[in-house]
Amino acid sequence: MSYIALYRKWRPNDFENLVGQDHISKTLSNAILSNKIAHAYLFSGPRGTGKTSTAKILAKALNCESGPTPSPCNSCTNCTKINNGSSMDVYEIDAASNRGIDEIRDLRETVKFTPVDGRYKVYIIDEVHMLTTEAFNALLKTLEEPPAHVVFILATTEAHKVPATIHSRCQRYDFRRISVVEIVERLKVVTEQMGITTTDEALKLIATHADGGLRDALSILDQCSALDNEPVDEKKVRRMLGLVGNDWIFKLVNAMAKREGYTILTILADLLAMGKEVTQILSEVTLHMRSVMLYQSVQDIDGFNLYTAEKSILEEHSKIFSYEEIVKIIKCLHAAIHEIKWSPQPRITAETAFLSICHTDGVKLEGSSLDLIKRIEKLEKNIQRLQNNITLPNKSNDTANLSSGKVYQEIDQTVKSHVPKIQEERIESVRAVKNESIQNQVKQVASPVPLNNTSHKEIWEKVLKGLMSRKKAAVHACVAQGYLQSLDSGQATIAFEAKFPKERTDKEDYRAILSDVFSEVCGMVMNVRSVLVSSSIPPDKPPHTMSRVEKAVENNEALTPEQRYVLDTAIKVFDTEAIKIPPRES
């Protein structure tokens, strides 16, 4: 007799031997005992979890000569025929090959005939989601009201592709992935009965790689046992599956932790020379980083399916990498695995991913130096805002706070709370530069430069020019209606004859702009205030002269683009229109 594969030889023959699906075996057994047999079942779940085996067990339970019984004898004529696939009452249909409407029409024609040997005609339709829409529609009526002697069992790995009209006519049973412990226990029974020598580590590795499918686990075991006459150990299983191995993965992770790009490239080249797949290398590194992440979050990891159970390794790597780094490494490796599917050079993709992680900026924490710089710049803006509101003759508490170093304390706290140890040296240099800049600003506030002998008229003209150079035409149009009344140490007073420009200049945005321009012109920090005066021309106010814009309007000349921009801005600010006015008398 020809050799029978292990997964066929050890297919469960009754509900008691069905591994990992107790919720289904108990329900079906009780339904048979209570004679509540449905006319249609839908078995869904991952591959290799027992869907087709359960369907055959149910068929035997219904047609056994001593039944219906939840424990078929597997020795009577009906059970024997069902086991060897020669029963005339059990039809196994592969929907992937018979997916058209013609096959379903033939099925409908055979449904009406009574069973040949047993009590029920059982139709097992495997991969039912592969049927066409027309085939599903043709099956609907028969599936809803079949003859009393017919039972439909639909099996699928993708239940979401089965139409809702089919779902509603069936009892659905969801098969779950079989746990690693359950698979290992079953493999031990098989190896003992078959005389195969194995190790516990090898069986656990096989169960882990089977991904919840007992059929896959038996196939791997069968292949490993046929490799040679030596015992099946972990090393043989890894060689059989093409796995990289823990030692190589640990070397890669250690090189990543030390940011040693040359070492990573060397290890990667050695693995590829050994025939390892790039995708497998990235996948195993990802699985190990997941194990480190879980160990870092939950110390009790006995119930988790981890890449390695060596707690010493997990503890070592969990101290090297922070949680944010682990997450970003996993995301980077996942992106590389996805990109490899479309990459003509998978090796380049892997090298790029590892070097990106190895690079100093390849993994950036949320509290990195860039974020610290942003925080410091924000503090500097707050300092500048305080400077604009300081009156130097009466030094406020803000200036005292600056001099006392409270700002430096806040920066130090920010540095200590948000910067990882691995970047302390880099941050120290950044902090030194920023502190020096802040110290210079504090000195400028505490010891302003005295004004030179420049007249008020010249300073006022420079301020107006400064506004135009900064493209602040709206501010220029507003403050140009006033004049510089006084200029004391640290404070400039602008007088207005009209109420509107005075109130507008008092707004925080205009006052801040004027303070910057005055500080630039005077060479010291200046505070600006505005006052309202009578319409009489003060002795120190320069006589009014007609501007170039006014002259152009008066002479009905074409305005230059610059003049037009000033005029339009003034009209927009004051919500008015341009009119001709006679020049004022000196």
From TrEMBL:
Keywords: ATP-binding, DNA replication, DNA-directed DNA polymerase, Metal-binding, Nucleotide-binding, Nucleotidyltransferase, Transferase, Zinc. SUPFAM superfamilies: P-loop containing nucleoside triphosphate hydrolases, post-AAA+ oligomerization domain-like. The keyword NAD does not apply. Pfam families: DNA_pol3_delta2, DNA_pol3_gamma3, DNAX_ATPase_lid. The gene is dnaX. GO terms for molecular function: ATP binding; DNA binding; DNA-directed DNA polymerase activity; metal ion binding. This is DNA-directed DNA polymerase. GO terms for cellular component: DNA polymerase III complex. Residues 37-185 form the AAA+ ATPase domain. It catalyses: DNA(n) + a 2'-deoxyribonucleoside 5'-triphosphate = DNA(n+1) + diphosphate.
